[in-house]
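Weekly modeling sync, notes
Attendees: S.R. (lead), two postdocs, one rotation student

Agenda item 3: backlog of single-chain predictions. S.R. asked that every request posted to the team notebook include the full sequence so nobody has to chase files. The rotation student volunteered to paste the first one in as an example of the format we agreed on. Action items at the bottom.

Example entry:
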Amino acid sequence: MNTLVYSSHEFDIPFLEKEAKNKHQLTFTKQALNLSTVNLAQGFEAIALFSNDNPCKEVLEKLHQFGVKFIALRSVGFDHVDLDESKTLGIKVANVPEYSPYAIAEHGVAMLMMLNRKLYEAQLLIQLQDFRLDTLVGFDLNKKKIGIIGTGKIGLVFAKIMNGFGCEILAYDPVQINNSDELNITYTSLEQLLKESDIVSLNCPLNTSTKKLLSEPQFEIMKKGAILINTARGGVICTESLLKYLENGHLGGACLDVFENEKGLYFFDHRNTIIKDQLFVRLRNLKNVVLTSHQAFLTNEALTGIAQTTISNLSQWEKEGISSNDLN
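Predicted structure, as returned to the notebook:
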């Protein structure tokens, strides 16, 4: 199938090329899909999109006019796609429902350890040949209460890792797993989780029920000194509220792989520009915040899984007109 890959990056092109060899013809563009770039899709039967592409209603109408029949998402999330409009236009959309949950969970743990044990600051001091330890005090994770919001595959892997540290696991999820006792998980209300947890990890999808799930009322009841980890989606939290409780000292810190306004910011080189998003600038300037630019998924295993499922979706569409991962 002749496919245009929007928002292609040096980190994912080799994986996609390997999986598509002798199966599909891929054309890569670094540009993101939007109204200005939708014309690039003329002559293609399918397109492959990333999380920062914008297949809104107007764009989908253009794609339909150009004869595009399939949209393969290279992501789990699909909240950026107008699925109702794509269905009306007869454009099939499929996602990558899962890849390596270990990549995401392990990255969350890595950020937590970096923040807690002051590893970034320690490295800076080493370079300055300042070997004093006065500013590098952290805390044991052992016996701390970990609150996990969302116990899908990523949340469960995170829980297993935290069990290894000897933590007590609280969880909140409308759908509870059957073997929670085996994993040392105690389900509770969101309010109780926030009140009791020393560390809160967001591992839920972004949808209508989770958008700004954590805002001022939730941060207000969180345990003083608690640390927030977000490897889910930026829109699950209200960044303005988070900043308020970080800056007033109520929260101990935050580890954020995602950002509410990351579209157009993350995945691009901004070294020669001034970033005007003041929420981002304020977050970046806080010493008790660790930021990474949506890289939690960036492992060989995860990239292989994304590529395999993306190409599999194209192959299923080509052979059967339907994919097992169709969303609409």
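Discussion: group reviewed the output briefly. The two ends are 20 Å apart (CA to CA).
Action items: rotation student to repeat for the remaining queue; S.R. to check formatting next week.
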